[in-house]
Amino acid sequence: MKKGLSLFSLFLTFSLILTSCGGGQAASQPSPPPNNSSDSQTAPIPESEALVPQPEAPPADAISITTKITELEPGLSAVRYDGDCGFDGFLEQGGASSDREVVQYLAENLIWELGLDFLGNIFGCSTIAVGSPDGGVLFGRNFDWNACEAMVVESHPENGYASLSTVNMDFITMGAGGMMDTALKLDQVRTLAALYAPLDGMNEKGLAVSVNMIQDNATINQNTGKPGITTTTAVRLLLDKAATVEEALELLRQYDFHASMGLMVHLALADNTGRSVVVEYIGNEMSVIETSAVTNFYLTPGEKYGIGTSQSHTRYEILTGLLEEKDIFTSEDIRDALSSVSKGNFGEFESTEWSIVFDLTAKTAQYYHRENYENSWLFALL
């Protein structure tokens, strides 16, 4: 099947025709069922899934996302993508061991020299996962950065799970010039690029993923001969292919992880069974720690434990203090927890560009932009 985008007659030598870019998976990788309603009528519900409260109809006030990029307010937009974005083909050909290789794959297989540049400033983030009063699970996430253009991307791949994710579009447009700057003004090009650059998200199975940075001179550059993934393509991999934390961990073990931007990061993962962990790489070895709160320092016991910014310790103490007070939170409680550790409380030049409350049972996402906790944007992944 031929799928594609085109710039029409904009450039005589610039064509965005996508031909047979997807269709495969890495060997031994779990294969999720197609996103098809007829399957749910015949396939038995796993016992573990049957115990999880099932979502009802989407809220009436949920944002309806279209394939045209829509600005919700200055600095925050949303878009939907349906179909094959070539990610299975990316995995099948070995993934990538650097951001530059991701760009090369996009250039050679999807679009002509997209010109992505993932370099940026140091950022901080906070996450919290906890049970809700209705028996569900909530996952809260702050993304701290300089003022940037954020975009919510709803993805419905042909061979994977539907998901909502968030992208710092400045990572994509930075360094672009000439024809690339013009091309990146097109919705189709920006959307396709964004699919390869998520920093957090939730999928239809109730798995949440978040990237948090650690300020350390070390980085992650595994080289064991496995296919490679970068920080952002790891997030896309987990959102597309993993239904639970355990499946996410198994997937990560099948790939060599290479940190984007040469920075040290760890991944916060949670699912709708209530399990939440942080994945760290110590000396390029994967470490998994069960935890409900993650900020920006190592949580793995040993010589690395505690390395990170002093402010990240303060934010962690605030979140764990809240968790000690109670073990059931409403979405408003999560919002207030995120507000309590947002950058505005610390008098620094960065801001909390977005805060999200993911309901991993109802499959909804409440977005708060630039520390305005009086106004939110509701998305439903149903």
Features:
24% helix; nine-stranded mixed β-sheet; globular; alpha+beta; 17 strands; 382 residues; six-stranded antiparallel β-sheet
Q: Can you offer a commentary on this structure?
A:
This protein has helices at residues 37-42, 47-50, 87-92, 99-110, 170-173, 179-183, 187-195, 231-241, 245-253, 310-325, 331-340; strands spanning 70-73, 76-82, 124-131, 137-145, 150-156, 163-168, 200-203, 208-214, 228-230, 256-258, 264-270, 276-282, 285-290, 293-294, 351-359, 364-369, 377-380. The longest helix is centred in the last third of the chain and has 16 residues, at 310-325. It is of the alpha+beta class. The strands form three sheets. It has a nine-stranded mixed sheet. Strands 14-3-4-15-16-17 form a six-stranded antiparallel sheet, with helices on one face. A two-stranded parallel sheet has the order 9-10. The model is unreliable at 1-52 and 112-122 (pLDDT under 50). The protein is built from eleven helices and 17 strands.
